[in-house]
């Protein structure tokens, strides 16, 4: 691909995405202000689904469905800001993110409108973040948490950090003085998810090309986004693992180890190109509504 073609493609995709966002934000913000949470969630999923098309993302679910059980905490590996677009197009959810995301131009606004739970990195402030997570779960809102604590290079899954999974410990809400949160914690369902970027224009992406889509380390956001938008159509594949009951594990560390093992094995399967033992065909995200139980 020539540099001219790449730049024109990036400009077109960025323009379409911005126009689409400007069109959606006012009615969404109005519904949010009126506390019309059902329509807000439906619009958010629709917004992300259209966005995948505009920026050149093809989302496929290799297998699995999102549970209807609530409260629900979804744990996924984290490769890029694109993960939010992919997962947001599959399930009506809010995300847990580091507080710095709220200050990013453009992305910060979208994160706040999406009712993201912002968590401080400082140990002294993590309790507040855990309490907010517990409160949202108690209200029946599915949350997505990236337990690696940072993004990876697209070739491997980093060790999961168990600190924020304190909400999965029995009695967490009670210790913090909230019976509602304690009840939700006791019944918490956790669902691991594996996500990988596997093909570019239908051709398998090797180890060398995966970092083009991964955003990690000290990479600058703007030039990375411009490069991604200038490339061809990338396929993001997802494995939705079976849901598990948090209360079935002796500790949050045991729960964390189980989830990391599931996510890591799923990512390895996706990157290797294996179809999986079940032989279940991939499904486009637009055909996934009836399976996920989303509105």
TrEMBL record:
Indicate, by first and last residue, each region the UniProt record lists as having compositional bias (Basic and acidic residues): 282-295
Superkingdom of origin: Bacteria
| Keywords noted in UniProt | Acyltransferase, Lipid biosynthesis, Lipid metabolism, Transferase
Q: Where is the composition biased (Low complexity)?
A: 263-279
- Biological process GO terms, please? phosphatidic acid biosynthetic process
MF terms (GO), sorted A to Z = 1-acylglycerol-3-phosphate O-acyltransferase activity
The protein's matches in InterPro entries, at most eight in alphabetical order, are given as: Plipid/glycerol_acylTrfase
Pathway of action: Lipid metabolism
Q: SUPFAM superfamilies from the xrefs?
A: Glycerol-3-phosphate (1)-acyltransferase (SSF69593)
> Where is each Phospholipid/glycerol acyltransferase domain found?
72-198
Q: Where is this region: Disordered?
A: 263-295
Q: Which PANTHER family match?
A: 1-ACYL-SN-GLYCEROL-3-PHOSPHATE ACYLTRANSFERASE, 1-ACYL-SN-GLYCEROL-3-PHOSPHATE ACYLTRANSFERASE-RELATED
Q: What is this protein called?
A: 1-acyl-sn-glycerol-3-phosphate acyltransferase
């Amino acid at each position: 691909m020539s540099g001219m073609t790449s730049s024109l493609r990036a400009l077109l995709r960025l323009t379409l995405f911005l126009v689409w966002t400007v069109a959606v934000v006012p009615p969404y913000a109005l519904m949010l202000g009126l506390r019309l949470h059902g329509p807000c969630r439906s619009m958010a999923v629709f917004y992300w689904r259209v966005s995948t098309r505009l920026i050149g993302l093809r989302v496929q679910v290799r297998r699995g469905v999102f549970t209807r059980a609530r409260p629900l905490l979804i744990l996924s590996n984290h490769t890029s800001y694109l993960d939010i677009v992919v997962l947001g197009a599959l399930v009506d959810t809010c995300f847990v993110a580091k507080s710095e995301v709220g200050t990013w131009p453009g992305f910060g606004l979208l994160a706040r409108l999406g009712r993201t739970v912002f968590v401080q990195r400082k140990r002294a402030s993590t309790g507040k973040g855990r309490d907010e997570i517990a409160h949202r779960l108690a209200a029946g809102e599915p949350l997505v948490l990236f337990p690696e604590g940072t993004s990876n290079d697209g070739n491997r899954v980093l060790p999961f950090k168990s600190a924020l999974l304190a909400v999965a410990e029995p009695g967490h809400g009670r210790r913090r003085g909230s019976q509602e949160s304690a009840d939700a914690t006791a019944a918490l369902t956790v669902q691991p998810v594996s996500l990988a970027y596997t093909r570019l224009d239908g051709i398998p992406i090797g180890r060398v090309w995966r970092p083009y889509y991964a955003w990690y380390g000290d990479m600058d956001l703007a030039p990375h986004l411009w490069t991604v938008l200038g490339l061809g159509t990338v396929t993001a594949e997802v494995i939705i693992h079976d849901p598990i009951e948090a209360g079935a594990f002796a500790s949050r560390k045991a729960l964390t180890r189980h989830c990391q093992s599931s996510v890591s094995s799923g990512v390895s399967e996706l990157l290797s190109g294996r179809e999986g033992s079940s032989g279940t065909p991939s499904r486009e995200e637009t055909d996934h509504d009836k399976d996920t139980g989303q509105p």
